[in-house]
Amino acid sequence: MNELAARFKHNYGGFGLEVDLRLPAQGVSAIFGPSGSGKTTLLRLIAGLERATDGYLSVAGSVWQDAGSFVPTHARPLGYVFQDARLFPHLDVRRNLDYGMRRIPSAARRVALDGVIELLGIGSLMERKPDRLSGGEQQRVAIARALGVSPRLLLLDEPLAALDQARKQEVLPYLERLRDTLDIPMLYVSHAVDEVARLADHMLVLDGGRVVAQGSTIDLMARTDLPLSGDDAVGALIEGRIAGHDETYQLTTVDFSGGRLTLPRQARAVGERVRVRVLARDVSLTLTAQTGTSIINILPAQVTGIASAGPSQSLVSLDLGGTTLLARVTRKSVDALGLKPGLALHAQIKGVALVK
Amino acid sequence: MFAAANLEAILLTVKLASLVTILLLLIGTPIAWWLANTRSAWKAPIEAIVALPIVLPPSVLGFYLLVAMGPQGPVGQLTLALGLGTLPFTFTGLVVASVFYSLPFVVQPIQNAFAAISPGLFEAAATLRARPWDRFFSVALPLARPGFVTAAVLGFAHTVGEFGVVLMVGGNIPGRTRVVSVQIYDHVEALEYGQAHELAILLMGFSFVTLFLLYALNRRVTTLSA
Fold it and tell me: Which residue in A290, A329, B49, B74 has its CB near the most CB atoms, within 10 A?
């Protein structure tokens, strides 16, 4: 019963949302989709901030909404992080954090706020009013405040969308630390492929108010038929183990089912399980293995599929010993190389990033 | 310092204005909250009724209150049935009339302050386990505080400054309904210009200081939140 089951039919402003879904109530599940696909509405329905005319919702065994009952938001054991932080302007950071925590019985306080404050690095901000905080600091305080109620489910609505690139990079590592340290299931709404790839174990893809796909992030990131395939940040995830380190050249090698990848030196122990990400635009294809090239990662692969990705581009799915990799090439190259499913060739990988 | 009759009028005025301000904050807050949040078709007509005393001559308002509270009026019938007598020409009647007369000066600042609060903050409070009443007291009231200060000051000052309604409903009974503004009128009628000056200067000074403090305070609040 450790899952979230939801069925909603909801209309707002001429836009209909109709979903029937089950999500694991553990780890991080991403709700992904282009803007206007209904992601935020789905999250608001789960929080009870919006009430579907026809709906059913149960989380880890307790029913929050069905035909005859509707648990109001303040009675649902959840935490909610809004895109725009929504800190109380009349309270300093300390009292913002205390706001939710004071409203739950002390016996129900499973999350130690002191630990969260340290984890999010906001200990020095306690006396400040929200208008004296940067966007990134506000969002970290908002996350800590939501955790203060010891939620059974943490809902995050594009918590990084309002931040610039630098602030995003500031907050992301904190979210990763939360995922790795706290045992609180999270639903993470995002339209940014890279955030989802770094954070989520499971993902749900929405488009036009309907669920178009759901499954493990690794499986879905390797598909070419989803609305994320047009994104410049599309790329496959590869799971593997640290094979060793080269101290002379400051490199780390990772073994996976399709061979060995070389990355810049990582502070990880040999044997540790890791997840790396290879962007489709960083993969090029050659029919014969190139010599005399500066590219280190060249692996044998087999074409499994070719999908269109825009007027001039194609997205090629490759099989590397059971692991899927994506390559973005021009349609012209597809024809010139005679790419077709079953063809054996070599994938040249220009960039590999460790994401987990 | 003041003549005994003047002092009596001053104390009566302060008592009336204080009582009316407290009543108006209690009555005006729920009205302001409703007006700030409702999408009902009744919003515009209710807003218009609340604002009527701003444009109506006090004599019109006073006339209808007098009729309503008189022995033949609906309010008068009710008070008579309850054994309270009739309200015109009593201090209680003056309080009731003043509450109507100063209502817009209290409701409008509070309504504007409530309307300026981002609805997202109430949603955030709900996700932090706050029930509806809790959200009102912990988010709406503290954030609307400048509006309450303005409302209280304007409500008090406006009650001190009324004349026409008092004359219509309260008459001119020493110690019961003879407030400062009426006392000044009396002095002028009796050609006691010195006595009239004493009170007129007092009201002038009070009004200026009150408004000055109000604007200075609001300026400080805006600068702080900017």
Answer: A329
